[in-house]
Structures are given as structure tokens and as C-alpha cells.
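G., the chain you wanted modeled:
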Amino acid sequence: MTPLHANTDASRVLVWGARGFIGRHLVAELLARGYTVDVLRRADNPGPTLPWASQVTWHDLAAVDTAAVFERALAQATVVFNLAGSSGAVESNRLPIHSLEANCRAQLEFLQACAKAARFPHVVFASSRLVYAPKGSDPVSELDPLGPRSIYAAHKVCVEHYHDIYARRRAITYTIARISNPFGPDPSADQKTYGFINALIDRAHQGLGLQLFGRGSQLRDYVYIRDLVDGLIRCAERPESRNQIFNISRGVSVSIHEAALLIRDRVGGGTIQLQPWPVEYEAVESGDYVADVSKAAALLGFEPSYDLASGLDEMLGGPWSGRASAVAAAGYDHVV
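Predicted structure as C-alpha cells:
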């Protein structure tokens, strides 16, 4: 794979949302590949100290003077990894105005700053597979109809369109990465663990029940964090990615029940418990999801190396950093 650009200045990237699960891994990999990294974070929520914290330049977003902070952060960045926003389909339906502010307003402020930047940045936006209409067990391509079932997913669609509008205004180029279900080691998490798979692992280590809604038969396309990060970097590095949408997934799905069995057998703890669907979760449940990743393979050379079993084996090869009380209390979202 070639670097972003031939000159040194253009190897500087900005990561917005670097303290989340995906962002923490992405920044570490970018640094390992020799990129200079700037990071945008909320000033009122500094979060845990991260292993790479001293190797990046930080920009703190406060409630005031947001435009000036975006301007400084974008001054030298040629590529922006846009991972910002609040997640959770059920939570977004409970707090729709909060989701609007976190996932739409902030994005418009950011894109306005991009329009004023001198470097015409390329933006890699982390969207979600939840934007698609349910299609059963047939593979879902980037051309399939959209049909968000939560405020969170509707806002992802909205922000995708924001990026396209600003690209048509020649303020940016973009790549939309519609991500399925990421999983992987998460030792830096300080509160609720990220994602369904990671939460099940924590519960299994604690000997707690592995709770599945319904029969646990719905299919999910789990993508290991190493593969996901590689896919996102390809969206930045490959010229073929410009103004394109890609499914960034494994391309092979397993049922939630099968995933729970794999975890139980490897950890040696936890019993599988089937529960009726809570009304709020059933309302946003998307059903089976199998990603068609042929476009990413053809244009980006994206070929995931891990399936669910091999990803779990790598994760569990060392001590798992459980957050017992926080995870046990928090629960997890089947639809993310």
C-alpha cells in the first residue's frame, strides 16, 4: 500500500473520535505506520490516559469557539478520520435531541471548517450498517435501499449526505465506511465495554449469563478491529476511494447464538440465557445482516484476515481486562 502522499507534510492526519474503541486502535496503527497524528477531543471529557497520548497533538473542543478549534486542527491535516458522535440505536430513540446535537450539528460545524481550510481535506466518515433496510440473509451491497430503524441510524444517513453535499461544493472529498459489528481487545476502556462481543466476553469471565434476545438466531457480520483499521486506512490511502461508499465488514456472518457458544467454550464460563425481546430493542432490531464486501475488495484491495473464531483466539491469548461492576450493570446492545 502506498502512503497518503509523496510529501512529508501530507502524511499528517487528524482523528476526530480517537478516544473511542475504533479510534484508539486506529491512532496506534497510524503512528506505527509513520503518520503524524492530530487528535480532536471534547475538553469536558478528557477520558483515560492512552498509551500513545504523548505521541499526538491534541485539540480540545469546548462549548465556545468551536470553529476556531476546528480551524486549528484542520490547518495541516490532509486526511481526517471522522469517528465522532454518540452511538446506540436504543439510546438514540430515548434521547433523540441529544443524538441530533451530537451526530448532526457537530458534523455541520466540522464540515463548515473544512470548507474554509486551505488543504481541501479528504474525510473518511465512519457510518454504520444500520443505515440499510433489512434484507434477510441475502448479502447487502452499497446499492441496496436504506431504511434506518433508529434515530442513530437516521442521523448516520443524514451525515453521509452532508459529506456528499460538501464534496459537491468542492470543500472536501470523502469516503463513507459503513461498518458492521467491530470487536477486539479493549484494555483502555474505563467504563462500559464496547460492543456485543466484548460485553459477552466480560460477562463470561465473570461467570454471568450470556443474555440473548429471542432465539439468538439473527445473523451478524463481525469484523475484527485489526481488519477494520486496515480498511479505514485504505479508505484514506487509495485514490479509488474518493467520493465512494464501502461496506467495511468481514463478509461472512454467524448467528448471535453461535457467537455466544464460541465465547463460552473459549472462556469456560457463563451460561446462555434466552430472553424475550424488550420493546425498545425489538423496535430497532434490523434482523439478519450479511455484508457484500466485493466493492471494497475490488477498489481498495480490502481482504479481512480474521474470522470471528481467529479474532477471539487472538483476543483471549492474553489476560482480558474485565470491568466487572461497570459491564455487569451496563448491559449491551444486540443491534449495534
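The chain has two domains: 9-181+224-248, 193-222+251-289+306-330.

Shout if anything looks off.
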